Every structure is written in structure tokens, then in C-alpha cells.
Amino acid sequence: MSQTRQLAAIMFTDIVGYTALMGNNEDKAFDLLRKNREIQKPIIEGFGGIWIKELGDGVMASFPTVSNAVYAALKIQAACKITNEFKLRIGIHQGEVVFENGDIFGDAVNIASRLQSLAPP
Prior knowledge:
This protein has about 120 residues and is an alpha+beta fold. Helices cover about 50% and strands about 35% of the residues.
């Protein structure tokens, strides 16, 4: 297993109300996942980020700098506002992380995830 350690800004996003929507209208929920990917992926990559993975309706990405992560988050929020179809919660935290086999581990990942759950939509 190849492991590397580095300083990174970790961003987590989550669709507000997705769990309830999945219970009420699966087709609409899956459509929102597709739209979420279409919005976020090019923005994340445009700011030098790496799309790490999806966790249900959430996305985890890594950026080389905090400013890149924040600018990407602002652009993602603006794009979601334009579509007016869903809102996101976004958490960002910087710290030393371990990259292993296309995934990321470390306290910075855990903290970004917790910040996301506390963030306003």
C-alpha cells in the first residue's frame, strides 16, 4: 500500500434534506445526485482540487490550499443557488492527512466532516 502524508484542505459537502427526499421520491433524489456531481466536479477540479469520493449524498474533496477550497465552495454555493433545486452544507478544514489508495485519512478529514454537519445551509 502506497501512503503519503501531506498538508491539505479537506472539503465535505452534503445535500440538505436528502435523506427525507430519498424516502419520499427516489427518482428526484437520484436526479439531485446527478446534478450535484455535474455542478461540483468541474468546480472542484477548476480550483486544483481532487474529487476523492461520494459518501451517499456527500462529497469529499482535497485541495492544495485553503483559499482554493473556500473559493470552490463559494462557487459551488452560487451554482446551487442559481439552480434553486437544492442547498448544501459545506465544511472545510486544513491539516496533515494520509493519502492511501485514492482515499484520505486523518483528523483533518474528521473535523471537516463534523464542521459540515454544523454548517448552515
